[in-house]
Amino acid sequence: MTSRKDQQQYWYDRSVPYRYVSVKAFAEGFAKFHVGEKLDQELGIPFEKGKSHPAALVTQKYALSNWEVFQACFTREKLLMMRTKVVYIFRIVQVWSYQSNIDL
Hints:
Blueprint: H1 23-32, H2 34-44, H3 66-83, H4 85-103
């Protein structure tokens, strides 16, 4: 649903003057329309899980265990650090040299 300002450009019948249609009125009109009624009937039938393929539906809360998620995140962070190791080495040397200048 578009905003009140933008709705007029989608008005279908230009011979009929435009009037704003609220979201509630639009939803009620769609529910009374034959497409809305058919959709309501189709969604009213409960889904039979026994007829579907076992791999089609999720049977566990998460696909990976917490340990596997931790390993994946750690490996990703390690890879990112290895890509930018030059920056890390430069910053360590920079901080070390700054600390050695303060101690003098």
